[in-house]
Amino acid sequence: MIESRTPAHVSYALIALSIPTAFPMLVAVIMAYVYRARTDDALLYAHYTWQIRTFWINLLLAIIGLGLTLLLIGYLILFLNQLYLLYRLVVGWYRLSQERYPVEW
C-alpha cells in the first residue's frame, strides 16, 4: 500500500512559512509527530523524523542565539540558524519529491 505523501509536503510547506515567523513550524512538528506514528512507510518515517529534528535543533539554536544577542554573537547564530533551516527545508523537500530518503546512509 502506497501512503500519501501530501502530509509530508504540507509539513515542509509549513516549515517554509516559518522562516519569517516561527508559528507554522510548531504546527509542522505536531503534524510530523502525528503522521510519523501512523506510517508504516520507512521513507515517510525518515522524512517526518528529519522534520522533527529540524524543529528541535532550530529551537535550540534560536534560544542560544537570543540569549547571546547582548554579546552580539547571537545575531550571527540566529542568521546561521536561518541558513541551517533553509538547508534542511530544501534538502528534505527536494528528496521527498524525488522519493528518496532525506539523508543517504
From TrEMBL:
Transmembrane segments: 12-35, 55-80
Keyword Transmembrane: yes
The species this protein was found in: Kistimonas scapharcae
Protein name: Membrane protein
Keywords: Membrane, Transmembrane, Transmembrane helix
